[in-house]
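Need residues for this backbone.
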């Protein structure tokens, strides 16, 4: 994944955002390094995924890594790509 703009999610809310990059395939999943639940991923095309996630109240405010994993197990991580504000 790569993105020129970091996604922000307000603490204790659910937000949709996009992950951009290349090489994504249908069935790719997104994980966030901490404090997020209910993560769902929608494949748009090989360069974009739509993601819906909740920044839970038990999570800590801060920046977290976003990892995209394709069904074949290949993955890539973007460090501090999302912020729980």
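Answer:
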């Amino acid at each position: 994944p790569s993105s020129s703009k970091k996604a922000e999610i307000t603490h204790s809310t659910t937000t949709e955002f996009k992950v951009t990059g290349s090489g994504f395939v249908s069935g790719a999943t997104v994980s966030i390094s901490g404090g997020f639940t209910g993560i769902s991923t929608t494949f748009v095309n090989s360069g974009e995924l739509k993601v819906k996630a909740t920044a839970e109240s038990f999570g800590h405010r801060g920046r977290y890594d976003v990892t995209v994993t394709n069904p074949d197990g290949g993955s890539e991580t973007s460090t501090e790509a999302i912020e729980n504000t």
